[in-house]
Amino acid sequence: MAPRMRLKLRTVFVLYFLVSVMGLLYALMQLGQRCDCAEHDQPYERTISRLRGELHKLQENMKKSEPTAPTIYVITPTYARLVQKAELTRLSHTLLHVPQLHWILVEDALQKSTLVSNLLRTSGLSYTHLHMPTAAQRKLHEGDPNWLKARGVEQRNEGLRWLREDRRAAAGGGGEQGVVYFADDDNTYSLQLFQEMRNTLKVSVWPVGLVGAMKYESPLVQGGKVIGFHTGWKPSRPFPMDMAGFAVSLRLILAKPDACFDADAPIGFLEGSFLQKLVTMDELEPRADDCTKVLVWHTRTEKPKMSTEKAMQAQGLGSDPTWEV
Amino acid sequence: MPKRRDIVAIVLIVLPWTLLITVWHQNAITPLLTARKGTSCTGFNVALDCSSQRGIVEVTRTEYVYSRPHPGLMFFPPPRGHPTYSRPVQKAELTRLANTLLHVSNLHWILVEDAPKRTKLVSHFLQETGLNYTHLNVETPRNYKVRGDTRDPRIPRGTIQRNLALRWLRETLNVNSSQPGVVYFADDDNTYSLELFDEVRHECVGMACSLCGGLRYESPKVNTLGKVFGWKTVFDPHRPFAIDMAGFAVNLRLVLSKPQAYFKLRGVKGGYQESSLLKELVTLGDLEPKAANCTKILVWHTRTEKPVLVNEGKKGFTDVNVEI
Q1: Structural domain of residue A96, as residue ranges?
Q2: What are the subcellular locations of this protein (chain A) (predicted)?
């Protein structure tokens, strides 16, 4: 009995040993297959960075699933020039992040262009495409400085007209929930700005960076109320603000159907000509931490130099004009 | 004798298990286990995670977009030594570039500041964006800084910063890693369409760039066989690679496998900076045209005007503590 038992035990042991060695080898082989993860030095930063990205995405999804949030109507005048497509492209990238947004793009043209139509169609945004040419006497000529004549007036008014018509046609009281913002196509907007403006009762205001030949212009706030304006040029104007520095509630726009931009207003008084018909200064709602943060910048894009193009065209070697730039 | 044999036996029983448990314990992050369960690695958007397991087909493509602020503008001579006057439009530019990059999946942004140390503005900004990023910095030495006209094409800008990013990539990533990726050099004032990133993702090397070189667009010339044979540009079209920084992207593996390829710093004529890198990586025949054989414009070399700040006056009018 004893020798047989020992034999059996030894066999069992040998089998066990073999199995465990094979298991170990298998595991080692599996580990050997792993890619050489040289990033062991920065795993935490990467994890944090990834988690932030996921958090950001979840926040965006949360916002998107709020159908009762007021819609932001962005009215943008635009005109054909070399950088137009580039400007509208990057503006659309910003707007795509904002939920419940409707883009009203008004071309300064006699008819809608294919460039803008195609861009809007492929942008993925909810939009309305309008057009309204600027009156001949108000058009800037080649070589005129930008500040000579007010620009975009007819286009913004056309945007307002369409909006009023559209909202009147929309049935129900819910059609009055919304905010209207005038966004030029060459400015830069942070995503936080749209959050700040969404719940506007009448007119909300905030600082604008790089405008008025200053680092920023801003309303001055005390006790939650606007008491004045920080600007370097004619601060005695009724509303010395830039177009990008305020948003108006849709309800107010519909309640005052005659409020429009005055094309004959002197330079710098355009915004005031509109706001004067809507609110008084103490009714303004300050945003961006009581107007202490810059969330929008009045950037301007250089006119690209075309000297070489002109020279090439004179030789008949210009760029292919059928290409859309 | 039996005692020794017993001990040997016990050791031989325990040893494999000890080793096994130790090794598995060390690899506590075990995609190995999840892989065995059959879930794919798509959750791991982070670069370099071990998605190339045996049997897993899912490959996480990662694209490295390297961006830097204009060094020329960073060193605009500060009047009266105002440190905050360095570059007013920087935050605006980075904001809108980030808004575009946020739409691109599997992207890692390598931002290199031309500064002696990383600024709070950029660090804070990067944290808030929610993008995958790496924040580096290296200061251009004084004798290379642009003086006077910041748009002087004779002096290459951003070279040291781009080279630092290349070095970081090579130090961080293993050349033998099967992780695919693409490296693209993106200046922060250009405009990029989302289609560009789709095109670039598939191991692109050559594209068309708009609004460059005083023309409506510059582009590689592509023959009927789909090969690049020349350059449609006016400024020195006989350069080995007459292309703008925004007009090409490089396969990551190529970057890693040629560790000596960098942008040349000294003795580079204006417009030759791109060539100084590309000629160490590829030949003209290796270029792969994108954007419908280089007939579509997907990127624009826009430039932002320097803001006029005359109303700030000599002493500064606005609160310096407000970040713009």
Answers
A1: 71-297
A2: Endomembrane system; Golgi apparatus membrane
Strands B181-187 and B62-68: parallel
pLDDT tier, B13 (very low <50, low <70, confident <90, very high otherwise): confident
Contacts of B96 in chain A (CB under 8 A): 90, 93-94, 188-189
Binding-face residues of B in 191-210 toward A, CB within 8 A = 191-194, 210
Residue A255 C-alpha, separation from nearest chain B C-alpha, in angstroms: 35
Q: Is the per-residue pLDDT at B126 higher than 70? A: yes
Task: Report the distance separating Cα B289 and Cα B88, nearest Å.
Answer: 37
Answer yes or no: do A52 and B20 touch at CB < 8 A.
no
Which residues in chain A are closer than 8 Å to B214, comparing Cβ atoms? Answer: 305-309
Which residues of B are known catalytic residues?
A: 274
Q: Are residues A28 and A93 in the same domain?
A: no
Answer yes or no: do A35 and A102 share one domain.
Answer: no
What is the rounded distance in angstroms from the CA atom of residue A22 to the CA atom of residue A31?
14
Q: What's the token pair of residue B70?
A: 């204009």
DSSP conformational letter for B304: B
Amino acid at the residue B31 = P
Looking at the domain assignment, is residue A318 inside a domain? no
How far apart, in whole angstroms, are the C-alpha atoms of residue A253 and residue A76? 17
A-chain residues within 8 Å CB-CB of B47? 39, 46
Q: Is A127 within any annotated ligand binding site?
A: no
How far is A236 from A30, CA to CA, in rounded Å? 76
Q: Mapping DSSP to helix (H, G, I), strand (E, B) and coil, where does residue B110 land?
A: strand
My answer on whether A48 and A80 are in the same domain is no
One-letter amino acid for residue B22 of the chain: T
Say yes or no: A204 and A276 in one domain: yes
Q: Do B214 and A293 touch (CB under 8 A)?
A: no
The strand pair at A71-78 and A178-182 is best described as: parallel
State residue B35's pLDDT score.
Answer: 34
CATH number for A120 = 3.90.550.10
What's the CA gap between B68 and A245, in Å, rounded? 29
Same domain for A107 and A145, yes or no, is: yes
Which residues neighbour A95 within 8 Å (Cβ) at sequence distance 6 or greater?
A74, A101, A103, A125
pLDDT above 60: residue B167: yes
Closest CA to B63 of B152, B156, B176, B196: B196
Q: Into how many domains does chain A fold?
A: 2
pLDDT in tens, B177-227: 667 778 888 887 888 888 888 877 765 454 445 444 445 566 777 777 777
The predicted model scores a pTM of: 0.72
Beta bridge partners of A136: none
- Block means of pLDDT (10 residues each) for chain A, length 325 residues? 62 82 79 51 66 75 70 94 91 94 94 94 93 83 70 92 88 73 94 93 93 87 92 87 94 92 88 92 92 92 78 78 76
Task: Count CB-CB contacts under 10 A for residue B212.
Answer: 24
| pLDDT of the residue at B293 | 63
The confidence band for B84, taking pLDDT boundaries of 50, 70 and 90, is: very low
**Within this chain, do residues A33 and A150 fall inside the same structural domain, yes or no?**
no
DSSP summary character for residue B309: -
A314 part of a folded domain: no
Asked if this assembly's ipTM is beyond 0.90, the reply is no
Closest to B177 in 3D by CA, of B257, B108, B107:
B257
CB atoms A57 and B130 under 8 Å:
yes
